[in-house]
Specification:
The protein is an alpha/beta fold and 268 residues long. The chain has a domain at 91-267: Glutaredoxin (3-Layer(aba) Sandwich). Helices cover 45% and strands 13% of the residues. The chain contains 8 helices and 7 strands. The protein has helices at residues 2-37, 40-52, 73-88, 133-137, 139-149, 184-192, 211-216, 244-267; strands at 101-104, 109-112, 123-128, 154-159, 202-206, 222-227, 230-234. Strands 2-1-5-4-3-6-7 form a 7-stranded mixed beta sheet. Helix 1 (2-37) crosses helix 3 (73-88).
């Protein structure tokens, strides 16, 4: 019995070591970039370059105030956490969508992600938090997309753990200073802040075990589209991979496909 227990512990240790080795190069690259971004002259040049590649009004450029420290112990922990979730996520393009548990903010009722699907309509999942500047900056663009395509798809905002908690990796650019959630009530209270910003979307919160965040690798922010219980669109990790313009392009193509299919039926 002791041998079996020792074998399990050894297997877990080896798995953890292998994970660290696979993530280490990408993590070190991100750490070096954060260190360089603390030099304001470099930060301004990098942000300028990033802004040049984002000419869509749906994706306003990321802004980082000079007062924000990028290379800290808390920032390194956050980056490692996000990269690990992304690597271990179970949601993948073309595969079944994880049906994790979430809580409806207004009804305070526990449901599963796929319970929010209505018939054959695609479901857009928008993961983020109020302390995430890129997520909140693009929330107005997301709402414009919601208003434009609500007749053919449904939208679900999933509130996850804070990207920049006031007792963690603090960002002065965050519109709200919110500490880490200690209980579900904390998370529900934080999610209430964004209800007025997305009036046409359902808002849910992840459970305190962060199972939805882990399944979708959503931290800091991320977009997904689920159709027929499968992932048909998987956006990149935020902030750099979080693109409302990509979501709009997918929805516009979907609308065109619907129109074309209806036209073909009429001709038959």
């Amino acid at each position: 019995m002791m041998d079996d227990s020792g074998g399990v512990q050894m297997a877990k240790a080896l798995k953890h070591a292998a994970l660290c080795l696979m993530l280490l190069p990408r993590f070190l690259l991100a750490a070096i970039m954060l260190w360089l971004l603390d030099f304001l002259c470099i930060r301004k040049q990098v942000l300028l370059k990033m802004g040049e590649g984002q000419d869509s009004p749906d994706d306003p450029p990321v802004c980082v105030s000079d007062s924000n420290k990028m290379f800290t112990l808390e920032s390194l922990r956050a980056v490692w956490h996000g990269q690990k979730l992304d690597f271990l996520k179970s949601a993948h393009l073309g595969h079944p969508a994880p049906n994790t548990e979430v809580v409806l903010v207004q009804e305070r009722k526990q449901v599963r992600i796929l319970d929010c699907v209505k018939g054959k309509r695609p479901l857009i999942l928008n993961f983020g938090s109020c302390s995430c500047p890129p997520f909140m900056t693009r929330l107005a663009a997301f709402q414009r997309v919601v208003s434009q395509y609500a007749d053919i798809v449904d939208f679900l905002v999933v509130y996850i753990e804070e990207a920049h908690p006031s007792d963690g990796w603090v960002s002065s650019d965050a519109p709200y200073q919110i500490p880490k959630h200690r209980c579900l009530e904390d998370r529900l209270r934080a999610a209430q802040l964004m209800l007025t910003d997305v009036p046409e979307s359902n808002v849910v919160v992840d459970n305190m075990d962060n199972s939805c965040n882990a399944a979708y690798g959503a931290y800091f922010e991320r977009l997904y589209i689920v159709r027929d219980e499968k992932v048909v669109y998987q956006g990149g990790r935020g902030p750099e991979g979080y693109r409302i313009s990509e979501l709009r392009n997918w929805l516009e193509q979907y609308r065109n496909d619907l129109v074309n299919s209806q036209t073909a039926v009429l001709h038959v």
